[in-house]
Protein backbone atom coordinates (compact mmCIF):
# COMPACT_ATOMS: atom_id res chain seq x y z
CA UNK A 1 0.00 0.00 0.00
CA UNK A 2 1.06 3.57 -0.53
CA UNK A 3 -0.31 7.05 0.03
CA UNK A 4 -1.35 8.75 -3.22
CA UNK A 5 -2.38 12.27 -4.18
CA UNK A 6 -6.02 13.22 -4.78
CA UNK A 7 -5.15 13.58 -8.48
CA UNK A 8 -3.74 10.03 -8.66
CA UNK A 9 -6.81 8.77 -6.84
CA UNK A 10 -9.13 10.56 -9.28
CA UNK A 11 -7.23 9.24 -12.31
CA UNK A 12 -7.38 5.64 -11.06
CA UNK A 13 -11.14 5.78 -10.41
CA UNK A 14 -11.62 7.13 -13.95
CA UNK A 15 -10.35 3.78 -15.29
CA UNK A 16 -13.19 1.88 -13.57
CA UNK A 17 -16.85 1.48 -14.61
CA UNK A 18 -17.87 3.20 -11.37
CA UNK A 19 -17.24 3.64 -7.66
CA UNK A 20 -19.27 5.16 -4.85
CA UNK A 21 -19.15 8.96 -4.83
CA UNK A 22 -18.28 8.56 -1.13
CA UNK A 23 -14.95 7.09 -2.25
CA UNK A 24 -14.00 9.93 -4.59
CA UNK A 25 -11.35 12.57 -3.80
CA UNK A 26 -14.03 15.26 -3.82
CA UNK A 27 -15.81 13.64 -0.88
CA UNK A 28 -12.78 14.33 1.31
CA UNK A 29 -13.40 18.06 0.75
CA UNK A 30 -17.08 17.66 1.65
CA UNK A 31 -16.11 15.97 4.93
CA UNK A 32 -13.45 18.53 5.78
CA UNK A 33 -14.07 18.12 9.53
CA UNK A 34 -12.47 14.67 9.23
CA UNK A 35 -8.77 14.14 8.48
CA UNK A 36 -8.55 12.38 5.13
CA UNK A 37 -6.03 10.19 3.32
CA UNK A 38 -5.91 8.71 -0.17
CA UNK A 39 -4.46 5.20 -0.46
CA UNK A 40 -3.72 2.75 -3.26
CA UNK A 41 -2.89 -0.93 -3.52
CA UNK A 42 -0.16 -1.30 -6.16
CA UNK A 43 1.20 -4.30 -8.05
CA UNK A 44 4.86 -5.20 -8.57
CA UNK A 45 5.30 -2.50 -11.19
CA UNK A 46 3.76 0.17 -8.99
CA UNK A 47 0.49 0.28 -10.94
CA UNK A 48 -2.61 0.95 -8.79
CA UNK A 49 -4.99 -2.03 -8.56
CA UNK A 50 -7.23 -0.67 -5.78
CA UNK A 51 -7.90 2.59 -3.95
CA UNK A 52 -9.44 3.99 -0.80
CA UNK A 53 -10.54 7.28 0.67
CA UNK A 54 -10.02 7.07 4.44
CA UNK A 55 -11.73 9.52 6.80
CA UNK A 56 -10.23 9.71 10.31
CA UNK A 57 -12.58 10.63 13.15
CA UNK A 58 -10.65 11.71 16.24
CA UNK A 59 -11.55 10.49 19.71
CA UNK A 60 -12.23 13.33 22.17
CA UNK A 61 -9.02 14.29 24.06
CA UNK A 62 -7.01 11.43 22.52
CA UNK A 63 -4.76 11.22 19.48
CA UNK A 64 -6.55 8.10 18.27
CA UNK A 65 -8.95 7.69 15.39
CA UNK A 66 -11.77 5.68 13.88
CA UNK A 67 -10.65 5.06 10.30
CA UNK A 68 -13.78 5.12 8.14
CA UNK A 69 -14.01 4.02 4.50
CA UNK A 70 -17.62 4.83 3.47
CA UNK A 71 -18.87 2.40 0.80
CA UNK A 72 -15.31 1.27 0.27
CA UNK A 73 -12.56 0.43 -0.26
CA UNK A 74 -12.50 0.09 -4.05
CA UNK A 75 -10.87 -3.32 -4.46
CA UNK A 76 -11.52 -6.70 -6.08
CA UNK A 77 -14.31 -7.92 -3.80
CA UNK A 78 -14.73 -11.10 -5.87
CA UNK A 79 -11.53 -12.56 -4.40
CA UNK A 80 -11.51 -15.54 -2.05
CA UNK A 81 -8.37 -14.08 -0.42
CA UNK A 82 -9.87 -10.92 1.08
CA UNK A 83 -7.27 -10.85 3.84
CA UNK A 84 -4.57 -10.16 1.24
CA UNK A 85 -6.31 -6.84 0.57
CA UNK A 86 -7.51 -5.89 4.06
CA UNK A 87 -4.52 -6.92 6.18
CA UNK A 88 -2.09 -4.37 4.66
CA UNK A 89 -4.81 -1.72 4.90
CA UNK A 90 -5.28 -2.39 8.62
CA UNK A 91 -1.51 -2.34 9.24
CA UNK A 92 -1.24 1.06 7.58
CA UNK A 93 -4.22 2.51 9.46
CA UNK A 94 -2.93 1.19 12.78
CA UNK A 95 0.30 3.05 12.07
CA UNK A 96 -1.74 6.21 11.58
CA UNK A 97 -3.27 5.91 15.05
CA UNK A 98 -6.51 4.10 14.26
CA UNK A 99 -8.12 2.27 17.20
CA UNK A 100 -10.68 0.69 14.82
CA UNK A 101 -11.47 0.46 11.12
CA UNK A 102 -14.93 0.69 9.55
CA UNK A 103 -15.53 -0.37 5.95
CA UNK A 104 -18.61 -0.59 3.74
CA UNK A 105 -18.14 -3.30 1.10
CA UNK A 106 -20.02 -2.22 -2.07
CA UNK A 107 -21.22 -5.81 -2.49
CA UNK A 108 -24.85 -6.85 -3.04
CA UNK A 109 -26.15 -9.76 -0.96
CA UNK A 110 -29.91 -9.92 -1.80
CA UNK A 111 -32.49 -8.36 -4.15
CA UNK A 112 -36.31 -8.11 -4.08
CA UNK A 113 -38.65 -7.11 -6.91
CA UNK A 114 -41.19 -4.30 -6.66
CA UNK A 115 -44.00 -6.87 -6.80
CA UNK A 116 -42.56 -8.79 -3.84
CA UNK A 117 -42.34 -5.61 -1.76
CA UNK A 118 -45.94 -4.65 -2.54
CA UNK A 119 -47.08 -8.12 -1.52
CA UNK A 120 -45.04 -7.91 1.68
CA UNK A 121 -46.61 -4.56 2.66
CA UNK A 122 -50.08 -5.99 2.02
CA UNK A 123 -49.36 -9.09 4.15
CA UNK A 124 -50.18 -8.42 7.83
CA UNK A 125 -47.83 -11.26 8.80
CA UNK A 126 -44.81 -9.53 7.24
CA UNK A 127 -43.14 -6.57 8.95
CA UNK A 128 -39.58 -6.64 7.56
CA UNK A 129 -38.04 -7.11 4.14
CA UNK A 130 -35.90 -10.00 5.40
CA UNK A 131 -39.06 -12.05 5.98
CA UNK A 132 -39.74 -12.07 2.23
CA UNK A 133 -37.79 -14.72 0.26
CA UNK A 134 -35.50 -12.69 -2.03
CA UNK A 135 -35.67 -12.74 -5.79
CA UNK A 136 -31.89 -13.28 -5.83
CA UNK A 137 -29.18 -14.25 -3.35
CA UNK A 138 -25.67 -13.27 -4.37
CA UNK A 139 -23.07 -16.02 -3.98
CA UNK A 140 -20.34 -13.36 -4.27
CA UNK A 141 -21.95 -11.32 -1.50
CA UNK A 142 -22.26 -14.37 0.75
CA UNK A 143 -18.57 -15.14 0.15
CA UNK A 144 -17.54 -11.63 1.23
CA UNK A 145 -19.67 -11.82 4.40
CA UNK A 146 -18.22 -15.24 5.32
CA UNK A 147 -14.65 -14.03 4.83
CA UNK A 148 -15.18 -10.89 6.91
CA UNK A 149 -16.51 -13.02 9.78
CA UNK A 150 -13.48 -15.31 9.51
CA UNK A 151 -11.11 -12.32 9.53
CA UNK A 152 -12.62 -10.98 12.76
CA UNK A 153 -14.68 -8.08 11.39
CA UNK A 154 -17.96 -7.22 13.15
CA UNK A 155 -21.13 -6.45 11.23
CA UNK A 156 -22.85 -3.21 12.27
CA UNK A 157 -26.50 -4.21 11.93
CA UNK A 158 -28.87 -1.30 11.22
CA UNK A 159 -31.81 -0.77 13.54
CA UNK A 160 -35.40 -0.41 12.38
CA UNK A 161 -34.70 3.12 11.15
CA UNK A 162 -31.73 4.56 9.30
CA UNK A 163 -28.31 3.57 10.61
CA UNK A 164 -25.77 6.22 11.63
CA UNK A 165 -23.55 5.26 8.68
CA UNK A 166 -24.51 4.44 5.11
CA UNK A 167 -27.74 2.55 4.32
CA UNK A 168 -27.58 -1.24 4.00
CA UNK A 169 -30.86 -1.31 2.07
CA UNK A 170 -31.35 0.87 -1.00
CA UNK A 171 -33.78 1.09 -3.89
CA UNK A 172 -32.47 0.96 -7.46
CA UNK A 173 -33.84 1.09 -11.00
CA UNK A 174 -31.75 -1.02 -13.42
CA UNK A 175 -31.09 0.91 -16.63
CA UNK A 176 -30.12 -2.19 -18.60
CA UNK A 177 -32.11 -5.26 -19.55
CA UNK A 178 -30.90 -8.83 -20.01
CA UNK A 179 -30.63 -10.14 -23.56
CA UNK A 180 -31.10 -13.73 -22.42
CA UNK A 181 -30.31 -16.15 -19.62
CA UNK A 182 -27.77 -18.10 -21.64
CA UNK A 183 -25.64 -15.15 -22.80
CA UNK A 184 -25.65 -13.05 -19.63
CA UNK A 185 -25.27 -9.93 -21.80
CA UNK A 186 -27.35 -6.78 -21.43
CA UNK A 187 -28.54 -3.88 -23.53
CA UNK A 188 -29.54 -0.39 -22.38
CA UNK A 189 -33.15 0.05 -21.33
CA UNK A 190 -35.32 2.50 -23.24
CA UNK A 191 -37.52 5.28 -21.93
CA UNK A 192 -40.50 3.22 -23.07
CA UNK A 193 -39.38 0.11 -21.17
CA UNK A 194 -38.68 2.13 -18.02
CA UNK A 195 -42.11 3.76 -18.14
CA UNK A 196 -43.69 0.36 -18.68
CA UNK A 197 -41.93 -0.93 -15.57
CA UNK A 198 -43.41 1.80 -13.37
CA UNK A 199 -46.73 1.35 -11.66
CA UNK A 200 -49.86 2.99 -13.01
CA UNK A 201 -49.80 5.80 -10.44
CA UNK A 202 -46.27 6.86 -11.38
CA UNK A 203 -47.05 6.85 -15.10
CA UNK A 204 -50.23 8.85 -14.47
CA UNK A 205 -48.40 11.39 -12.29
CA UNK A 206 -45.66 11.90 -14.89
CA UNK A 207 -48.33 12.55 -17.51
CA UNK A 208 -50.21 14.83 -15.10
CA UNK A 209 -47.10 16.93 -14.46
CA UNK A 210 -46.46 17.25 -18.17
CA UNK A 211 -50.07 18.23 -18.89
CA UNK A 212 -50.02 20.78 -16.04
CA UNK A 213 -46.97 22.43 -17.62
CA UNK A 214 -44.33 21.48 -15.04
CA UNK A 215 -40.90 22.35 -16.46
CA UNK A 216 -37.76 20.61 -15.22
CA UNK A 217 -34.33 22.14 -15.74
CA UNK A 218 -30.74 21.67 -14.57
CA UNK A 219 -29.54 24.58 -12.48
CA UNK A 220 -26.18 26.05 -11.58
CA UNK A 221 -24.43 26.70 -8.30
CA UNK A 222 -26.50 29.91 -8.06
CA UNK A 223 -29.68 27.79 -7.84
CA UNK A 224 -28.54 25.99 -4.69
CA UNK A 225 -30.14 28.73 -2.57
CA UNK A 226 -33.54 28.02 -4.14
CA UNK A 227 -33.05 24.29 -3.63
CA UNK A 228 -32.03 24.85 -0.01
CA UNK A 229 -35.00 27.09 0.81
CA UNK A 230 -37.36 24.35 -0.42
CA UNK A 231 -35.27 21.69 1.38
CA UNK A 232 -35.61 23.57 4.70
CA UNK A 233 -39.37 23.79 4.09
CA UNK A 234 -39.43 20.02 3.47
CA UNK A 235 -37.44 19.40 6.66
CA UNK A 236 -39.90 21.41 8.74
CA UNK A 237 -42.84 19.53 7.23
CA UNK A 238 -41.33 16.06 7.50
CA UNK A 239 -39.51 16.48 10.81
CA UNK A 240 -35.82 16.06 10.01
CA UNK A 241 -32.81 18.31 10.63
CA UNK A 242 -31.63 20.03 7.43
CA UNK A 243 -28.01 20.55 6.45
CA UNK A 244 -26.82 24.14 5.99
CA UNK A 245 -26.57 25.74 2.55
CA UNK A 246 -22.77 25.82 2.88
CA UNK A 247 -22.69 22.00 2.92
CA UNK A 248 -24.33 21.82 -0.52
CA UNK A 249 -22.14 24.60 -1.90
CA UNK A 250 -19.01 22.68 -0.88
CA UNK A 251 -20.49 19.43 -2.20
CA UNK A 252 -21.30 21.06 -5.56
CA UNK A 253 -17.82 22.54 -6.00
CA UNK A 254 -15.89 19.54 -4.68
CA UNK A 255 -17.61 16.79 -6.68
CA UNK A 256 -17.70 18.83 -9.89
CA UNK A 257 -13.99 19.60 -9.50
CA UNK A 258 -13.40 15.83 -9.83
CA UNK A 259 -15.47 15.74 -13.01
CA UNK A 260 -17.75 18.37 -14.59
CA UNK A 261 -21.47 17.66 -14.11
CA UNK A 262 -20.81 14.93 -11.54
CA UNK A 263 -23.33 16.70 -9.32
CA UNK A 264 -26.40 18.40 -10.76
CA UNK A 265 -29.11 20.46 -9.10
CA UNK A 266 -32.55 19.94 -10.65
CA UNK A 267 -35.51 22.33 -10.47
CA UNK A 268 -39.16 21.59 -11.29
CA UNK A 269 -41.25 24.74 -11.75
CA UNK A 270 -44.93 25.29 -12.36
CA UNK A 271 -45.94 28.73 -13.64
CA UNK A 272 -42.73 30.13 -12.15
CA UNK A 273 -43.16 28.49 -8.74
CA UNK A 274 -40.53 26.01 -7.58
CA UNK A 275 -42.51 22.86 -6.69
CA UNK A 276 -39.67 20.32 -6.41
CA UNK A 277 -35.88 20.33 -6.43
CA UNK A 278 -33.30 17.57 -6.18
CA UNK A 279 -29.58 16.83 -6.30
CA UNK A 280 -28.16 13.97 -8.35
CA UNK A 281 -24.64 12.54 -8.47
CA UNK A 282 -23.14 10.28 -11.14
CA UNK A 283 -19.84 8.41 -11.14
CA UNK A 284 -19.40 6.52 -14.39
CA UNK A 285 -22.19 3.97 -14.78
CA UNK A 286 -23.90 4.63 -11.43
CA UNK A 287 -26.26 7.55 -10.88
CA UNK A 288 -27.70 8.53 -7.47
CA UNK A 289 -30.65 10.59 -6.33
CA UNK A 290 -28.96 12.22 -3.37
CA UNK A 291 -31.26 14.90 -1.89
CA UNK A 292 -34.80 16.00 -2.61
CA UNK A 293 -37.26 18.71 -1.63
CA UNK A 294 -40.86 19.46 -2.52
CA UNK A 295 -43.41 22.18 -1.90
CA UNK A 296 -46.47 21.50 0.23
CA UNK A 297 -48.48 23.74 -2.09
CA UNK A 298 -49.19 22.61 -5.65
CA UNK A 299 -48.51 18.97 -4.78
CA UNK A 300 -51.25 18.07 -7.23
CA UNK A 301 -49.04 19.05 -10.21
CA UNK A 302 -46.69 16.15 -9.29
CA UNK A 303 -43.37 17.98 -9.51
CA UNK A 304 -41.59 15.25 -7.54
CA UNK A 305 -42.51 12.63 -10.13
CA UNK A 306 -41.54 14.95 -12.98
CA UNK A 307 -38.08 15.69 -11.58
CA UNK A 308 -37.40 12.01 -10.84
CA UNK A 309 -38.34 11.06 -14.39
CA UNK A 310 -36.02 13.78 -15.74
CA UNK A 311 -33.13 12.44 -13.63
CA UNK A 312 -33.77 8.85 -14.73
CA UNK A 313 -33.77 9.88 -18.40
CA UNK A 314 -30.58 11.90 -17.90
CA UNK A 315 -28.84 8.92 -16.26
CA UNK A 316 -29.94 6.67 -19.13
CA UNK A 317 -28.67 9.13 -21.74
CA UNK A 318 -25.31 9.37 -19.93
CA UNK A 319 -24.80 5.60 -20.19
CA UNK A 320 -25.51 4.75 -16.56
CA UNK A 321 -26.54 1.17 -15.83
CA UNK A 322 -28.33 1.87 -12.56
CA UNK A 323 -30.36 4.73 -11.09
CA UNK A 324 -30.03 4.62 -7.32
CA UNK A 325 -32.72 6.19 -5.11
CA UNK A 326 -30.51 5.51 -2.05
CA UNK A 327 -31.67 4.38 1.34
CA UNK A 328 -34.80 2.64 2.50
CA UNK A 329 -35.49 1.04 5.84
CA UNK A 330 -36.15 -2.68 6.14
CA UNK A 331 -39.68 -2.12 7.41
CA UNK A 332 -42.69 -3.37 5.46
CA UNK A 333 -45.10 -2.62 8.32
CA UNK A 334 -47.96 -0.63 6.79
CA UNK A 335 -48.29 1.36 10.05
CA UNK A 336 -44.61 2.38 10.16
CA UNK A 337 -44.05 6.03 9.09
CA UNK A 338 -41.02 4.96 7.03
CA UNK A 339 -43.10 2.74 4.74
CA UNK A 340 -44.34 5.71 2.73
CA UNK A 341 -40.80 6.29 1.45
CA UNK A 342 -40.43 2.75 0.16
CA UNK A 343 -43.89 2.90 -1.42
CA UNK A 344 -42.89 6.04 -3.34
CA UNK A 345 -39.71 4.38 -4.60
CA UNK A 346 -41.42 1.06 -5.40
CA UNK A 347 -43.56 2.95 -7.89
CA UNK A 348 -40.51 3.33 -10.14
CA UNK A 349 -40.67 -0.42 -10.79
CA UNK A 350 -37.09 -1.05 -9.67
CA UNK A 351 -35.84 -3.37 -6.94
CA UNK A 352 -34.81 -3.29 -3.30
CA UNK A 353 -31.14 -4.14 -2.87
CA UNK A 354 -29.33 -5.23 0.27
CA UNK A 355 -25.61 -4.57 0.52
CA UNK A 356 -23.20 -6.31 2.86
CA UNK A 357 -23.47 -3.34 5.23
CA UNK A 358 -20.81 -1.73 7.38
CA UNK A 359 -18.17 -3.73 9.25
CA UNK A 360 -15.82 -2.79 12.10
CA UNK A 361 -12.46 -4.25 13.03
CA UNK A 362 -11.41 -3.24 16.57
CA UNK A 363 -7.65 -2.68 16.85
CA UNK A 364 -7.66 -1.40 20.44
CA UNK A 365 -10.63 -3.18 22.06
CA UNK A 366 -10.75 -0.93 25.14
CA UNK A 367 -10.93 2.26 23.08
CA UNK A 368 -13.38 0.66 20.66
CA UNK A 369 -15.71 -0.30 23.51
CA UNK A 370 -15.50 3.24 24.92
CA UNK A 371 -16.28 4.65 21.49
CA UNK A 372 -19.35 2.41 21.20
CA UNK A 373 -20.58 3.64 24.58
CA UNK A 374 -19.94 7.26 23.55
CA UNK A 375 -22.04 6.83 20.39
CA UNK A 376 -24.82 5.07 22.32
CA UNK A 377 -25.05 8.01 24.75
CA UNK A 378 -25.25 10.48 21.85
TrEMBL record:
<keyword id="KW-0012">Acyltransferase</keyword>
<keyword id="KW-0133">Cell shape</keyword>
<dbReference type="InterPro" id="IPR050644">
    <property type="entry name" value="PG_Glycine_Bridge_Synth"/>
</dbReference>
<keyword id="KW-0961">Cell wall biogenesis/degradation</keyword>
<protein>
    <submittedName>
        <fullName>Aminoacyltransferase</fullName>
    </submittedName>
</protein>
<comment type="similarity">
    <text>Belongs to the FemABX family.</text>
</comment>
<dbReference type="GO" id="GO:0009252">
    <property type="term" value="P:peptidoglycan biosynthetic process"/>
</dbReference>
<dbReference type="GO" id="GO:0016755">
    <property type="term" value="F:aminoacyltransferase activity"/>
</dbReference>
<dbReference type="InterPro" id="IPR003447">
    <property type="entry name" value="FEMABX"/>
</dbReference>
<dbReference type="GO" id="GO:0071555">
    <property type="term" value="P:cell wall organization"/>
</dbReference>
<dbReference type="Pfam" id="PF02388">
    <property type="entry name" value="FemAB"/>
</dbReference>
<dbReference type="InterPro" id="IPR016181">
    <property type="entry name" value="Acyl_CoA_acyltransferase"/>
</dbReference>
<keyword id="KW-0573">Peptidoglycan synthesis</keyword>
<keyword id="KW-0808">Transferase</keyword>
<dbReference type="GO" id="GO:0008360">
    <property type="term" value="P:regulation of cell shape"/>
</dbReference>
Amino acid sequence: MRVISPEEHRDYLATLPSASFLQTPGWAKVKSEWRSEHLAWVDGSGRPVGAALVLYRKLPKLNRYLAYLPEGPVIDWSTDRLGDWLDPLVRHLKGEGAFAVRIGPPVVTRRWSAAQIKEGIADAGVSRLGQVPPLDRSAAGARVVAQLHELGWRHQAPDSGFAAGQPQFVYQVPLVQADGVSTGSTTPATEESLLKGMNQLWRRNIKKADKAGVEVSVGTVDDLKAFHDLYVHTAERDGFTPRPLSYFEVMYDALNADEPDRLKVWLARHQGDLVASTISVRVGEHSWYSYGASSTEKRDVRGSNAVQWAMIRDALAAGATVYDLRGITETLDADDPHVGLIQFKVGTGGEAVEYAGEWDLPINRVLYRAFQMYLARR
